[in-house]
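Figure S4 source data
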Amino acid sequence: MNFIFNHKLFLFSGAPQGPTNLEVGNQTENSVTLKWNKPKNDGGSKITAYQVEIKKPDSDIWEIANDYPIKGNDFTIDNLNMGKPYEFRVKAKNAAGWGDYSTLDRPVTLKPDSSK
């Protein structure tokens, strides 16, 4: 949205789109590392943080998985249980606020760690 006041142009930024290419980067028998790329459209201002949310098995409630603002493009969620399906989503924040969610296309079920 643009407004002109006293012949000056003021641009108002909006919330960003969801992060792109959300995927599982690594998983163990009790953790999942998610990774993603920045949104295609940042809404007109720099991305300042990301938030990861988890929906645990047998729950309909999304919970925040990170205790601090995520500055990078990956995050590891620990203390998960094998054999249970977990759902994950991520959103980005800019000066205008939180944007849209990006959600994995299917739940993640942890399996025994084959590297042991």
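Figure S5 source data
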Amino acid sequence: MRHPAALALFLALVCLAQPGALLAQQWPEPLPPEIQQLFEPTLTAIRAGHLVDPETGTTVANQIILTRFNPSNGQSEIVDVGSNVTIPDGTEVIDLSNLYVLPGLVDSHDHLAITYKRIPENNAYYFTTIMDSSPIRAIQAFSNGFQKLASGFTVVRDLGNNGNYADTALRHAIEQGWVPGPTLINAGIIIGAFGGQFFEVPEWENTVYPEYLNADTNDEIVKAIRRNIHYGAQVIKVCVDCQRYPYTVDQLKLFVSEAANANMRVSGHVQTTEGARRAIEAGLWSLDHANALTDELHKMMAEKSIYRAGTETPLTWYRGSERGFARTVEGLRNAYENGVKITFSTDADYYVPGLHRGEVTINFLKTWKAADIPAPDILKAMTITGYEACEIQEERGPIKKGLAADIIAVSENPLEDIDALRDVQFVMKDGQVFKRDGVVMPMPFFHGGPQYGWRVR
């Protein structure tokens, strides 16, 4: 192929002009009529008994949500919302008149392609990265994403610890139409000062990669950021202070400016007060983990509109201590009272016998309830603030005309009882029904090839 870039551009323009053109490039023309009709856009009307608006904390009764799905590219759109929406002939109608309908949920911090365990590695994920290859971790990522989607999480910000870009592999598989899954905002490989979060011995220095990219000089920082962007990252994740030699404010500012050069943001793992202070001063987009965050730092974050992905682990039979949980609750409450932009975030990257990843995720509601945060504000953190932290609110999230159709439904009003989110009865992802009447029905999401188009870098 002499001019691959020109060919890719030509094919992209053809596909924009003609729905289903990507498929037509792979099969003889003309397509049989019975195949061609499979790629015609379809309409679905949802009769919502109670439509929940997390942004205003209100509900409206007896609404109709009209959605369109394009099978040729996997794209969806909310065509109209209201009480008097006309339903065209041939539209599939879904009756959710007994349910509370709301936008999909967001987990603003997880690691889908790692699952550490009590046995055999005693929850030491360094050993997990040694035992589990990137291919098996990509399969784990699909499974974990599938489970979270079944629990209503239509968006996941996947912040590293995913082996050799298993997160990018999953995002591509979802976007190409191979498998179902949430919308992923993935970080690629975490960038850190020498050693990342590991404390390996000299003989095994090479085990830091691919879990972390060592970057100590300015040139190494720039190269690491560009490497991640090149291999499909959508947000940059930095270990601010994971070693005794934390990044300086100027180095962190370089992270911010270099990421901004590609119109991207920087999320910072912080574990010391000084590291968090430097990250705030440098203007990072979000801070991950909350143990180091104080009242003073929360006030600084609120002033600079920095998002907090605190990963507030609940006290359960499988995790946590009374003392640690009390500190976590106190910190979350303090952030809330200071007006920090708080997101629902979990870091729930561990195996719990008897629970799937979505159930482990939703258990984090325990912490928010213990912090006495009102249900409407919890729901807003799980939706509106999450969309904004991911910078997707103009494309998907809210149930508004023109946005992608990511919709869930529950039996009770989550504005009154946030635990209603524990029993998700319905999930629509990008205009296709993934779960109905409490039963997952994923087959329409699986395809025998990249139905929504191949990836061209």
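The radius of gyration is 22 Å. The first strand starts at residue 42 and ends at 53.
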